[in-house]
Specification:
The protein is mainly beta and 533 residues long. 4% of the residues lie in helices and 43% in strands. Strands 29, 31, 36, 37, 38, 39 and 41 form a seven-stranded antiparallel β-sheet that branches. The protein has a six-stranded antiparallel β-sheet with strand order 30-40-32-33-34-35, with no helix packed on it. The radius of gyration is 25 Å and the shape is elongated.
Length: 533
């Protein structure tokens, strides 16, 4: 069983539509999850917020408790935050005014979805999520330019939130994604991020008396380096107290910014990048950063440069480490690894949360109609933190046998040297590696269906190449001189595997090393650098 396959996770009960299964660990040890759910599809009437409790790390859940009822105005996109006292807060959108449509850039002039506007509110629980306060409390949000420029001149506010709240001591920081215009194609045509800060909501007996401020200072929020869309901000704090915020755009990459003054001002936004300057590719989907207990960071993204809402399968993660820049701590990101996938290629895996408890890692996630909890093999995180070259490879012999999980071919390849490896089997089966056109090409043919994949362009000369064929995730990737191919100007550097892998006789390429499994990217990188235990 492959733990990365989302279908091997434990389902969180919901009505039909389900979003943002976010979790906090209550004072009594139970997990409390908040889910936006409804019997219809996303955005339809009846959408509301429920919570459940689990006493077995998400394997089973209690009956749902309404934070807001299904027969009331829409309540959506809840996030949870636990106070030092153990009180749990649930923050969410609420269509308090019960609008049934809003002005939009539609042919009709209106949009029927009313789940991303209204009022930002919260309830709280003093019994570990078993029940919620009768009082619903609204958070005041400072009007800014994007509000005044919406079709209602700010009298109706457009917004939502998916970002996990951040607790700094006894103070609370919430992200908010302000919308300037609803559009006919894609929902939100203009957006930017804001931060809601309260110094006392977590400590007051009556949180209705809390003080709130809207950040950053001034009229302009967190925007994209290019393009009108900057949304789904995710906030974390570095070891020197700085804030790091990552968010989605429609430019093929997530964006980020740092704040050195607790959110009042921010650095100029840039696209997420690897240390060598390459952009980390990501479509219009949630991309989140979590701080791990060991002080490192984990970045959830999709490693493809699409600009729309699709392309969310598989999920990749990069490990981040702090480094000292002239202006303070910054994060450097590793090449990514596959974290989760689904066999259905168009599945949209998203809106995750991370629970790290007792040295174990759990991810909650949704594909909009099924929410699950998946336990992550801790060896993935440990390997990314401390990469060691694998020792189970051996030179190719006379035959190649399919192990079921996939395989890795590793060795030195000279640019444009022609056929490097050739294996043939029955019924036209073929596995071939070629060095041509300044790339390395892999062909896998099962006699009926062929897969063709290739690396990024290589400079002239000899190169260390690892070709990773992941038969379970059905992904092919190339690691050249310790760097995962990202596709360059193409949307992605990895390829879908469409053909089956057959047993073959080796006709050429005995100098290549074979691993009877797909290596992790960090293992291929360690082979290049000679990292040993």
């Amino acid at each position: 069983m492959d733990w990365r396959n989302i279908q091997n996770g434990w389902e969180i009960p919901t009505e039909n539509y389900c979003d943002q299964p976010y979790i906090v660990v209550a004072e009594d040890g139970a997990w409390v999850v908040a889910v936006t759910t409804g019997v219809g599809d996303e955005g339809e009437a009846g959408q509301h917020v429920v919570t459940m409790r689990s006493l077995d790390h998400g394997k089973t859940w209690s009956d749902p408790v309404d934070v807001e009822p299904a027969d009331g105005p829409e309540a959506s996109y809840a996030v949870l935050l636990k106070a030092p006292s153990g009180r749990i807060f649930c923050f969410y959108n609420h269509n308090t005014d019960n609008l049934r449509q809003v002005k939009a850039n539609f042919p009709s002039g209106f949009w029927k979805r009313v789940d991303s506007q209204g009022h930002y509110v919260f309830r709280y629980s003093d019994d570990c999520g078993k029940s919620w306060s009768k009082k619903r409390i609204e958070i005041p949000i400072r009007e800014t330019q994007i509000d005044r420029e919406n079709p209602y001149q700010g009298q109706v506010r457009f917004f939502w939130n998916v970002g996990r709240p951040l607790r700094v001591g006894t103070e609370a920081y919430l992200t908010l994604h302000k919308i300037g215009q609803f559009g006919a194609f894609g929902g939100y045509e203009k957006s930017e991020g804001a931060i809601l800060h309260s110094p006392d909501v977590l400590t007051l007996e009556d949180p209705a008396n809390a003080v709130w401020e809207t950040l950053p200072d001034g009229e302009i929020g967190l925007r994209a380096p290019e393009g009108p869309v900057a949304e789904e901000q995710c906030l974390t704090q570095l070891s020197d107290g700085s804030f790091f915020c990552v968010y989605r755009t429609i430019a093929g990459s997530g964006a980020f910014s740092y704040s050195r003054d607790l959110g009042h001002t921010w650095t100029k936004p840039d696209f997420m990048r690897y240390p060598d300057g390459r952009r980390m590719k990501h479509p219009r989907a949630a991309n989140f950063v979590w701080k791990l207990n060991n002080g490192c960071y984990l970045y959830w993204f999709h490693n493809n440069g699409g600009c729309w809402y699709n392309g969310r399968n598989p999920v990749w993660v990069s490990l981040g480490r702090e480094w000292d820049a002239p202006d303070g701590k910054r994060i450097a990101w590793s090449d990514p690894e596959i974290l989760l996938y689904d066999d259905q290629r168009d599945t949209r895996i998203s809106y995750p949360d991370l629970v790290e408890v007792d040295g174990r890692y759990f991810i909650s996630q949704t594909q909009k109609t099924i929410a699950r909890v998946n336990e992550i093999d801790g060896r993935l995180i440990a390997g990314m933190m401390h990469p060691v070259a694998p020792e189970d490879g051996a030179p190719l012999g006379d035959t190649f046998q399919n192990c079921g999980e996939g395989f890795t071919l590793q060795g030195t390849v000279e640019t444009d040297s022609g056929e490097v490896l050739r294996m043939e089997g029955e019924d036209g089966a073929l596995i071939r590696l070629d060095a041509r056109e300044s790339r390395v090409f892999l062909t896998v043919h099962d006699g009926e269906c062929a897969t063709l994949a290739f690396s990024d362009v290589m400079t002239p000369g000899k190169h260390h190449v690892a070709v990773i064929v992941d038969a379970q995730a059905k992904i092919v990737m190339f690691v050249v001189d310790g760097v995962l191919s990202d596709g360059g100007d193409r949307p992605r550097g990895w390829f879908r595997m469409y053909s089956n892998i057959k047993d073959c006789s080796v006709l050429r390429g005995q100098e290549m090393n074979l691993f009877h499994r797909p290596l992790a990217v960090w293992e291929a990188r360690a082979l290049f650098h000679g990292d040993k235990a």
